[in-house]
Design goal:
The chain is of the alpha/beta class. It has 15 helices and eleven strands. It has an eight-stranded parallel beta barrel with strand order 1-2-3-4-5-6-8-9, surrounded by six helices. Strands 7-11-10 form a three-stranded antiparallel sheet, with helices on one face.
Length: 366
């Protein structure tokens, strides 16, 4: 599974694996792919440093990268407390009433929420970069599109490629104009934040829009056959996230979440604003149903929603309240029906890719 981009980065397979787990990122790189550690959950720079220390020590010298969440436009002087103050009381009451309905216990006294979307704040993301550029990262990806111009320039000064996620050809062109190096075309099927366009349509549109910049296809990819399809559409590689959630290296902290992922079908996800305020694909639960119910107050815009539900999500996760318990994941969850190692995933991807290429060659009469 080699392309011009994979050769440039010195990786065996053009498979880029996004994950919040350092052990998974290291395993992806060791398996010949390119591990990308998600930084959004790191509120403190020393926490990110700790995990990058571990990742760097266990990647065996293979290349890896970092994914941040940074707005393109600077917003200065806004603190987390300022954002918290904007949350309406009726939304706070809705959260408490929903938790009470399902009997979700309180956190212990003095126990802080372990889940908090603070990485979206520019000052947090910049502090993450201050740490990251001390490590030999080879790629900086931004989940909110093109990062600010000075960040792109700083990355290039460190010989770090910059990638940006796009949900349309229009977004992809904006990224190219901003000077990024790789476009990640993320389709509607993907887990987490997505646009409205499916991967089969989006990938070739993005490829044509930014040629000769390389495009990675994302969304609905979990087999070698699907990797082959993405490359035949012009992509220089694939960007996979959901498929790693049920690997043995993933530290989900919740057996119940893993059970739900393994049992879910491709129709058991929903694109909802319940988690962050922006449409994000996740397991459908009674929590997402409550927020999507038109009789309720409805989700707040990002970043208010993420801060509003932070403690609630921590409580739901800690006590494994199954009706409410979910996680971001794409429609590929229907293929994630057993726990296996990252290497086993790569072995399966390679076999499926070879079968697909053989099938294409037979069709072409080769």
């Amino acid at each position: 599974m080699q392309t011009e981009l994979s050769k440039k980065l010195g990786i065996e397979h053009a498979v880029f694996g996004f994950t919040p787990f350092p052990a998974v990122a290291a395993a992806i790189s060791r398996a010949g792919g390119f591990g990308v550690l998600g930084a959004v959950r790191y509120a403190a720079p020393d926490e990110l440093k700790r995990d990058l220390d571990w990742l760097d020590a266990h990647a065996e010298g293979r290349p890896y990268g970092l994914d941040v969440v940074m707005p393109a436009k600077k917003v200065e002087g806004v603190t987390e407390a300022d954002i918290e103050a904007m949350i309406p009381p009726e939304h706070r009451k809705f959260v408490q009433d929903t938790l009470a309905k399902y009997g979700v216990p309180e956190l212990a006294e003095g126990e802080a929420s372990g889940w908090r979307i603070t990485g979206w704040m520019e000052q947090v993301a910049r502090s993450q970069l201050d740490v990251a550029f001390d490590y030999p990262i080879k790629l900086l990806a931004n989940a909110l599109g093109s990062p600010p111009a000075d960040v792109i320039a700083r990355a290039h000064q460190h010989d770090v490629l910059v990638a940006a996620l796009a949900g349309s050809a229009k977004h992809a062109r904006k990224h190219a104009d901003a000077g990024i190096d790789i476009v990640v075309a993320q389709g509607y099927e993907a887990g987490g934040h997505t646009g409205e366009i499916a991967s089969m349509v989006l990938t070739p549109e993005a490829v044509e829009a930014v040629d000769p910049l390389p495009v990675l296809a994302a969304g609905g990819i979990g087999s070698g056959q699907q990797v082959a399809a993405a490359l035949t559409l012009g992509a220089q590689g694939v960007w996979l996230g959901s498929v790693w959630l049920t690997t043995t290296e993933a530290d989900m902290h919740s057996p119940a979440v893993t059970r739900k992922l393994l049992a879910a079908g491709s129709g058991d996800t929903v694109r909802s604003r319940a988690l962050t305020g922006k449409p994000a694909r996740q397991l459908r639960t009674e929590w997402t149903d409550a927020w999507d119910d038109p009789t309720g107050p409805g989700p707040l815009p990002m970043p208010l929603q993420g801060l509003l539900v932070a403690e609630a999500v921590s409580r739901i996760q800690k006590y494994e309240v199954e009706p409410l318990l979910g996680t971001p994941v794409g429609q590929i969850v229907g293929r994630m029906n057993e726990e296996r190692s990252v290497q086993a995933v790569f072995d399966d991807l390679t076999r499926g890719f070879e079968k697909a290429i053989d099938r294409i060659n037979k069709i072409a009469g080769r």
